[in-house]
Design a protein that fits this description.
The protein is mainly alpha-helical. The chain folds into two domains: about 5-145, Up-down Bundle (Ferritin), CATH 1.20.1260; about 175-390, no CATH class. The protein has 13 helices and no strands. α5 (about 155-165) runs parallel beside α9 (about 270-280). The protein is flat, with a radius of gyration of 27 Å. Mean pLDDT is about 80; it is low at about 145-175.
Length: about 400
Amino acid sequence: MTRNEKILAALKENWDAETRGHYTYAALSERETDPVRAQILMHLANAEKVHAELWANRIRELGGEEPVYAGSKHGDADTLPNRVGGVKMALRRLEIEESRAIADYGKQLRELGDEPSEAILKHVIEEEKDHYRELSSLIRDHYPQGVEGVKVDPKAMITELLLRRGKSGQQATGWIGDAIYGVNDGLGAIFGIVSGVSGATAGNSHFVLLAGLAGTIASALSMGSGAYLAAKSEREIYEAEIAREREAITMNGAEARELLSLYYQLKGLPEQDAANVAEHIAKNPDQMLRALTSERLNLTEEALSSPWVSALSGMASTAVGAFVPLIPFFFLQGIPAVLWAAGISLAAHFAVGAAKSLITVRTWWSSGIEMTAIGALEGLITYFLGVSLGGLA
């Protein structure tokens, strides 16, 4: 491969990455319910498009073929982890991608050996650093101040706020995350019981199944009741806060409007625009209550978990995870049953760990290996404790 071909290959990869970033940010902007965040995401999308055009122009100057984008028109926004994890998790992944892009561009700056391309690299690196900071701010619910090209339209802001009630604020991460952790808890707890009882009884299926099934029922009921009470308490706290906010608005409407205006100013709205938005929303008492509560609690009623859904999800997922280590003991006895139980339990640990990557930013294989290692250590400890205790009996 000639030097020119190597440069063109690197620039084509840059163009692909920036174009994919443009479509990803644009798709996330369309799905964002907060108008300020949506405009910041669109600003990032437009910046990525400009970067892609810079690389495309340089490719043409070097005589390369016109780059053609073959990916999704939604970029990475529709990948399974981003769909499951929601917008905030997608932003966390993009934050990591921005840091990697900065590192890759820095490496190219040292190795590419093409002065015009290096000039583009220096410009893009500085803007990517800004993007990284803006993403960090959005992820942590802070609004970057003075972002060039981002001007909030108060009318659009009002429209979005009025529409927010009709949109579901609950992310899929809620019940899916509960289900994954429920499976994990059930699997870990009963695998420990199975290992310990197997060590104490040399894999006697009768005792292992008796202890395992009792543990499965107890774990499932405990998880279900805990999830129910947690979701119910969260809803009760929210309703109490709503009642307090309603009373505060009734007692001192002017102070409530001023407070809402200050929240919008913190998001980047000019003082007068923020005051106009607050005044407009205050004309509808119910909307004023929802808007102020949303800003103060960072929560909407739609985002609250249903106690019964949480309970059933937690209970069922825990029971499923807990049942896995017991399966071999329905068909086998002794050491073969213990070995099979260990094998399928460790495989299940890896699967659960890999599934956790859907709601985290880690790779599936590293998460899976970590869970498998933890499960293996747990099994060994409880097995040898069972052997020791069994010898004392």
